[in-house]
């Protein structure tokens, strides 16, 4: 596997969604058939990097305005990192909690971004008709013997070597909600083990109806670290006094202001 950016932020989340919802076969789909796996408002994702000592827990919120909030917990052999990362307009990155102690915030957003897109891609491969087609517990399987799986999240890229396979299940867990369990295995040769493999275990859920971004526009950003990645900032700084989320969306808090 090749990932652009540090994997220091391998992070873990998965509060269960509501109990499974039985759906009549002739009922209207609770998720439009045109919706794709990468279009939920909320995604909960637990990732176990099998046999490595790393686990990651993420909660992703996608605002209709385009902002992304990631609540994270990282469990690694050398400790635990928690916090929140907020990407505003694809330009400004803010953080609070232990994750904000990292001088450069951008690499901390790359692993959750790649892993979320990997999970979405695996769901597209195994259930290509989209989440609306999953109306009962459904077995999932896919793979390829010679074609590498390429991921581009917009923030980082990942290459997972062939042969790769994915198996698992997906099922309805509430109105407009889906849960899934996936096991992804891929070739990871090394000089010492040319036939080596690696594996991830995903457990997660999605909500396609709850467009309820946790941060209101008037949320003060005092105590957050701020980094304008679009302006080339490579080190986070304290957010200016009085800055709110709405102000950040309007371009306030840039290095020159």
Write the layout of secondary structure elements.
Elements lengths: L1 E2 L38 E8 L4 E9 L5 E9 L2 E10 L3 E5 L9 H21 L11 E7 L4 E4 L4 E18 L2 E11 L9 E11 L17 E4 L8 E2 L6 H5 L8
Antiparallel strand pairs: 1-9, 2-3, 2-11, 3-4, 4-5, 5-6, 6-12, 7-9, 8-9, 9-10, 10-11, 12-13
| Tally of strands | 13
SSE arrangement, N to C: EEEEEEHEEEEEEEH
- What distance separates the N and C termini? 41 Å
What composes the largest sheet?
A: 13 strands, antiparallel
Number of separate helices: 2
- Helix-residue proportion: 10-25%
Mean pLDDT: 88
Overall shape: globular
Q: What oligomeric arrangement do these chains adopt?
A: single chain
Beta-strand level of the residues, as a percent range? Answer: 35-45%
Can you describe what's shown?
This protein has 257 residues and is mostly beta strands. The protein has two helices and 13 strands; from the N terminus they run ββββββαβββββββα. It has helices at 106-126, 245-249; strands at residues 2-3, 42-49, 54-62, 68-76, 79-88, 92-96, 138-144, 149-152, 157-174, 177-187, 197-207, 225-228, 237-238. Strands 1, 2, 3, 4, 5, 6, 7, 8, 9, 10, 11, 12 and 13 form a 13-stranded antiparallel sheet that branches. β3 and β4 form a beta hairpin. It is globular and about 55 Å long. The termini are far apart. The model is unreliable at 1-26 (pLDDT under 50).
Tell me briefly what this model is.
The chain is mainly beta and 257 residues long. The protein has two helices and 13 strands. The termini are far apart.
């Amino acid at each position: 596997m090749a990932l652009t950016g540090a994997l220091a932020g391998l992070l873990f989340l998965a509060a269960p969604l509501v109990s499974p919802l039985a759906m009549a076969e002739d009922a209207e789909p609770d998720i439009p058939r045109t919706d794709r796996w990468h279009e939920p408002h909320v995604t909960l994702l637990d990732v176990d990097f099998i046999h490595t000592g790393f686990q990651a827990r993420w909660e992703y919120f996608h605002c209709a305005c385009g902002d992304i909030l990631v609540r994270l917990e990282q469990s690694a052999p050398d400790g635990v990192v928690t916090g929140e990362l907020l990407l505003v307009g694809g330009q400004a990155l803010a953080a609070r909690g232990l994750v904000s102690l990292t001088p450069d915030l951008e690499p901390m957003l790359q692993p959750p971004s790649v892993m979320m897109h990997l999970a979405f891609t695996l769901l597209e491969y195994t259930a290509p008709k989209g989440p609306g087609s999953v109306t009962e517990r459904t077995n999932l399987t896919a793979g390829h013997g010679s074609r590498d799986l390429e991921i581009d999240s917009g923030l980082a890229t990942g290459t997972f070597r062939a042969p790769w396979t994915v198996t698992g299940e997906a099922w309805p867990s509430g109105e407009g909600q889906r849960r899934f369990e996936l096991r992804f295995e891929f070739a990871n040769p090394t000089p010492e083990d040319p036939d080596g493999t690696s594996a991830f275990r995903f457990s997660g859920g999605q909500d396609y109806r709850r467009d309820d971004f946790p941060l209101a526009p008037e949320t003060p950003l005092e105590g957050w670290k701020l980094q304008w990645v679009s302006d080339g900032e490579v080190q986070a700084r304290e957010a200016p006094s009085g800055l709110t989320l709405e102000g950040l969306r309007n371009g306030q808090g840039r290095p020159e202001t």
